[in-house]
Amino acid sequence: MTTPSLTLRAIRATPVEVPMARPLGTSAQIMRTAPLLLIDLETAEGIAGHAYLFCYMRMAPGLIAAVLADIQEALLGERLAPVDFSTRLSRRYRLLGAQGIVRMALAGFDVACWDALSLAAGLPLASYVGSRPRPIPAYNSNGLGLMPPEAAADEAEALLEQGFRAVKLRLGRPTAEQDLAVVRAVRRRLPDSVALMADYNQALTVTEAIRRGQALDGEGLYWIEEPTRHDDYAGHARIAAALKTPVQIGENFAGAPAMAAALAADACDYVMPDLERIGGVTGWQRAAALASAAGIEMSSHIFPEASAHLLAATPTCHWLEYVDWAAPILAEPLRIADGLAQVPDRPGSGVSWDQDAVKRYRIA
């Protein structure tokens, strides 16, 4: 396959704040809106690549946009080469630190590069990276925040629309007994064929995670996610060894080296990198190679549109985390049928904007 020749002309960044259909209450915070940064990578050849970042806080898009402006200044007029750019930009920001805001900007730029190249090649992103579009098992990760047991059970049932056969529940209430009551209420209401994941969002100490995890063993959870501080791989290894329920981590892996360290520490049973923290498409491919070598199942964290393409090319593909946070500003949102994400066969990642919605939700 011939790599298209595209030249960077400009990077445009547009901040928006989109209302969430289902507010998300975790042990860390309650979110009712999704602050996003929309990235348009323009080329001299007229092809534009698109990507978006989930920014967590309303103040973050402006900071990320400043880094993207610096990337534009550094690479203006160069031929798009995302793997080469990844190495060069990592060196550029080494003294500042290619973490946090900088890492998010690098990842968004990388995804937009790959989107532009696959558009120019006339191929879906899945095909451009060497696979093919195919349905990917998805779990519904909207809502199901910290709420009373019966309210959680009601919402879990509602989340089975579109044929989902898996949902994710947030845990981390003040007591283990409260968490257990919610898990039991939701599990009773769901069919046995529906998988129930649980996420602690780093809420517990290692000792408390072991105590609560052992209390939840046998309650029908598919996995327990990030029970303690995300970068405590030794602590997660202790938890994983003590529990029967599989432990899932990875949304906070800061690039493939962090994932390699977690795997070396036996910190988890499953991994789920996040596109904007693992390093975009380039970083994802490195992570997928690590997961394949380790024989460990790999899921995604948010960003379902591009992640669905990348999971199609991941040898140990496991689950797509589905959230609809970007759907209101997308021209063609990702489609779910029978609990499977339908990876589109049109060129690119499938991400393009509903311009009227972008105007409506733009942050002034």
Strand order of the largest sheet: 5-6-7-8-9
Low-pLDDT residue intervals, each spanning 5 or more residues? none
For the secondary structure, the number of strands is 12
Helix coverage percent: 25-40%
Verbal overview:
- This protein is an alpha/beta fold and 364 residues long.
- The protein contains 13 helices and twelve strands.
- A five-stranded parallel β-sheet has the order 5-6-7-8-9, with helices on one face. A four-stranded mixed β-sheet has the order 10-4-12-11, covered by helices on one side. A three-stranded antiparallel β-sheet has the order 1-2-3.
- The longest helix is centred in the N-terminal third of the chain and has 22 residues, at 100-121.
- The N and C termini lie far apart (43 Å).
Features:
globular, 364 residues, 13 helices, five-stranded parallel beta sheet, alpha/beta, single chain
SSE diagram, text form:
Elements: E1 8-25, E2 30-43, E3 48-54, H1 60-75, H2 82-92, H3 100-121, H4 125-128, E4 136-140, H5 149-158, E5 166-170, H6 176-189, E6 195-199, H7 206-216, E7 221-225, H8 233-242, E8 247-249, H9 256-264, E9 270-271, H10 275-278, H11 280-294, H12 304-312, E10 320-322, E11 335-337, E12 340-342, H13 355-361
Parallel strand pairs: 4-10, 5-6, 6-7, 7-8, 8-9
Antiparallel strand pairs: 1-2, 2-3, 4-12, 11-12
Helix pairs in contact: 1-3, 2-3, 3-11, 5-6, 6-7, 7-8, 9-11
